[in-house]
# Entry
Amino acid sequence: MSSIAGGAVFAIVSLLLISCAVLLILRHYLPLRTTPGYLLFPVFLALALPIGLILLVPIDLASSLKEDGEAQGIWLPERVVLVTWRIAYWLTFCLTWFILPLLGEYVDSGYRTPKDRIIYSLRSNARYQLITFGCGALGLAYVFVQYGPEGKYIKPLIMALAYCVGLVQAVLLLGHGLVAVPRYLLRNHGIRLQRLQTKAPKVKDKLDDAVLELQDLNKHIDELKSRKRGLSKEMEDWIDEIAEGGRYTVVVPASTIPSNHNSRPVPAVITDRYIADTARRLNRARHKVVRFTNEWQHLVNEAKGLQQIIDSYATKHLEPSSEDLTILSRATILTPYTRYLTYCRVFPTLRIVFGIFLALASASIIWSELVKVVAPQLSVISVTVIRHTNGDPKVGFGGQLISFIWIMYMCTCTLSSLQDIKVWGNRALVPRNTYYESACWYSLQVAKLTVPLTYNFLTFTPKEVRIKTIFYHFLGQHISFTPLGKGFDYIFPIFILLPAAATLFHVYGRIKKILGYGMFEDDDEDSSFGTGTWREGRQLIEQEIQGRAHANSAGLTNRVPIDPFSDQPQGTHREPTIYVPPGEDRRTAQRQAERLAAATQAAEEADENFFSEFTHRVRNTIDNVERPDWLPEFGKRPKWMGGVNDNEPGNQGSASDRHRSNGIGRFFGAKKEPSGGRIRL
# Structure
């Protein structure tokens, strides 16, 4: 495609497609009609600009390697590419470090007026901005000592520091995602029903706790309303708005409230700050209920679908589920038999094939990170993207397509790791009901991580190719203008081996077992210790399915379903409603108590050492040997010497108990509790 017209048409069409794709993503996670424009537009830019940067790197490669005005593939004039890089980069920079952090705190402030929200947002971000400017001051001092106090180094320093901060987070997340994504496909190629059943008690407990927390806050709001008589008119209206507002309603019978349920007391003096804090906690609690309700519904629906797939192995027929909203399940061209073949034969095979393919791609990325400094000609990414014609490196349309796929896979692995990390608090992406602060935070991460990943991909190419690109002249030379920045750019990505190895060998799971807390959700070792078993999860899922069937037959809805293809939930109410049946809290407490007792017993058994277990087995052998009748009487004091009669009440079995408790087992850590006739296996 030697003409510039082809590149211009491709750029315009790509811009339209990117805009449509981002709007569909926003429509899936946010209600577009009710989301304010001041939030929707920055989030839209934070998603659209990074996708444009990913598409701009292949165009930059082809445009920089053209000779005599001719290029292979899609290209644009260097001036157009440079202006595009400037606009996209600086907009992304402002969104990452200034606009989205302030906007996230603005929508999460809980205050009523825009002025109070802005003041709260500035105060909340003051520490974050001070840390940022402090790092910038240290870097500026280093540059001034190295090169002298000149103002021309300020811009390169800002760009280099922003790149380094993003690169640290990107490498850690990328290393985890390169292992987690292909392993997810390989482990879930078959029926994973038991894994879902093991996970069900944990999700159900989180949902119950979130409902109780929201119930507590609703009760606190009612108490606050009863105390509003002596407040100003503005504060009374504000409290009424807090009580009536919100997108989630919880219907809980009064009988389900535990007897020890204590509400937070209302202070004697009610201030604006206190009301704002209450509103903020209430909004977060509503979001938490929405989040875990969606997660629980998704888990139940998935388990129900997997059970139908298991049942179809006998009949060779699979009927579509009424709760499955995917396009494939609604397709009328699939007969029950072809649907059975699709879900039971085709999909598992495709998951295995794609899992192996992505595992090879992940290994290629890690290998390219390791050899890009010592032997760049051995980089798999460089070999697949760049081809040499008469000794000159060229990037054609095929190379551009492959490079786009490489960058997209790196970004996908990095962003997928955000869902596995547990240190982000209550932030989550919920279809149709994502909290505004969570939307700002996730879009901020997309904008912050894309630039380091795209330039890190550019470092996989040979030096003679990299230094010709506009991206290198715009950003790369500023990163490498100091020896420290150049060394960091080339050496630090090697540390991708650490998170990759930690994920591959389940280090996070072992750390969680030792410390009781882990950074990543490690689902590879399905341990039900202390969190319920798969049988309990199966019972919970069956109860939920039976409850839905009973509610539908009675003309009621347990929970209002959320249609991902509409801006409002279905049903007569605008707000989705969750109904907690009576006794749910008691069942939850009983379930947690049973799991705690089982976990305590398992922990006590696990604490026994080898000598204690050996003593148990020897004692069982000796106790179960048939002893002669005269042996118990041997060595016993006669009655005239003060001996005890075994036939007296309260002394039955005392000799055997003393024999068990005073044996040699006490020297090896044996417990001094009677076995009650039980045999240690």
The radius of gyration is 32 Å. DSSP finds 23 helices and four strands in the chain. The mean pLDDT is 79.
